[in-house]
Structure of DNA-binding response regulator:
Amino acid sequence: MTIRVLIADDQVMIRDGLAALLSSDPEIEVVGQAGNGREAVDLARELAPDVVVMDIRMPEMDGLAATAELAGDPDKNDADAPKVLVLTTFDLDEYVYEALGAGASGFLLKDAPAADLVQGVRVVASGDALLAPSITRRLISDFARRRRHERPSPAATAALTPRERDVLRLIARGMSNAEIAAELVLAEQTVKTHVGHVLTKLGLRDRTQAVVFAYENGVVGD
């Protein structure tokens, strides 16, 4: 299945370079380019991409506002809304925390190897795993601590079965379905079912939100 991608960056050369790179993969189709956040939101609604590769610093509307608007688009349900892969310049950029809060499904450094971008688009499109080098997990953990003002009630995960809580804890550690299956001695399809139940019961859009939820609600230790 072809992954439809929209690229949003205010620099034409970067957009063209990203488009050429992603288009070299036969399973990725670049359906459009936007020069600012407002244009990205409008084109996303018109072209219905699977993934928006979003720069943060753009004129008119920045990538954070655009991400938040796409994630909260009343005209689309969670399944139809595009996943947003945010590009950032610095690995400790404060904007990364805000991007996750705005609904981004992952982020990637602009100086990452080309293969990482292609793989990142695939991962975000599938929703199968968080785009999680070690620094991503550290950033998400720190992001969650910053937002935690008080210890949440255990009621936050009351809807989950003990096994689903186990799965959530392992998702928060950045483990794939195959790794979770090996850890819990389950079939991978069973793990996929548990992941689906976790997301549905907690009202979460994807695994990225599940990781943030887990840290915010004390499902995993700091």
Observations:
- The beta strands are 3-8, 28-34, 51-55, 83-88, 106-109.
- Residues 188-202 form the longest helix (15 residues).
- The chain has two domains: 3-126, 153-216.
- The domain at 3-126 is CATH 3.40.50.2300 (Rossmann fold).
